[in-house]
């Protein structure tokens, strides 16, 4: 089990204009209240190996901020998708870690990259959606125990997102790696089956929902 903790406060430093004062009066708040409260993000989670945590909320709610704070606070071996470099000289199959060619191809397929022309292309030449899936494949193939991914499946269509979510769910249960994901979509949650959902509202308020793992979860993952 690992502990995920985040606490971040963004003080309000807005200029006190006539319009600002009118808005404050409309909502019954003072300058002191605004400066005292600001935006607060606080979260304490205990995550077991093989579990998935999904940070959900509308655009601007602070998902990326909270994900970054959780990443920086994690002491276990970790990787963040956005930090994975895109080679301009080697092909995908050369960049993915693995002992056999078949193993590398299977890893790429888990991330939705199975077309031969894509596999033999260079990461830097891929589309944005393919780059995201390539980085996901690299994270899966690596040694990191905790994988952080922002904007999870945000640039994929419904079917593509569902397939990758299903593959990640199976891989997490089998490998015992922990996934901490963030995104605004929820149409693939039935396939992702996250163990923990953190709902983030505008203003920083969070609600933690834990899902009881059903009997048979991971039964087909062997």
UniProtKB/TrEMBL annotation:
An example Gene Ontology CC term for this record: plasma membrane
Gene3D superfamilies, per the entry: P-loop containing nucleotide triphosphate hydrolases
CDD domains hit by this protein: ABC_ATPase (cd00267)
GO biological process: cell division
InterPro entries linked: AAA+_ATPase, ABC_transporter-like_ATP-bd, ABC_transpr_LolD-like, P-loop_NTPase
Domain ABC transporter, chain residue ranges per copy: 24-222
The organism's place on the tree of life at top rank: Bacteria
Keywords for this protein: ATP-binding, Cell cycle, Cell division, Nucleotide-binding
Molecular function (Gene Ontology), one example: ATP hydrolysis activity
PROSITE patterns cross-referenced by the UniProt entry: ABC_TRANSPORTER_2
UniProt-listed PANTHER family: IMPORT ATP-BINDING PROTEIN
Name under which the protein is recorded: Cell division ATP-binding protein FtsE
Organism: Anaerohalosphaera lusitana
């Amino acid at each position: 089990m690992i502990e995920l903790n985040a606490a971040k406060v963004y003080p309000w430093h807005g200029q006190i204009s006539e319009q600002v004062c009118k808005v404050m009066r409309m909502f019954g708040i003072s300058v002191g209240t605004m400066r005292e409260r600001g935006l607060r993000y606080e979260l304490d989670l205990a995550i077991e190996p093989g579990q998935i945590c999904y940070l959900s909320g509308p655009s601007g709610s602070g998902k990326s901020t909270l994900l970054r704070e959780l990443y920086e606070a994690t002491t276990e071996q970790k990787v963040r998708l956005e930090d994975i470099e895109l080679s301009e000289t080697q092909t995908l199959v050369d960049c993915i870690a693995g002992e056999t060619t078949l193993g590398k191809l299977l890893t790429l397929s888990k991330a939705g990259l199975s077309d031969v022309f894509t596999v033999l292309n260079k990461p830097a030449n891929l589309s944005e959606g393919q780059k995201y899936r390539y980085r996901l494949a690299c994270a899966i193939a690596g040694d990191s125990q905790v994988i952080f991914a922002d904007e999870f499946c945000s640039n994929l269509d419904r079917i593509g997102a569902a397939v990758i979510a299903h593959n990640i769910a199976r891989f997490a249960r089998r490998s015992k790696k922990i996934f901490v994901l963030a995104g605004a979509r929820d149409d693939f949650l039935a396939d992702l089956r996250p163990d923990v959902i953190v709902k983030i509202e505008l203003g920083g308020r969070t609600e933690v929902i834990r899902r009881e793992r059903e009997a048979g979860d991971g039964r087909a993952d062997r």
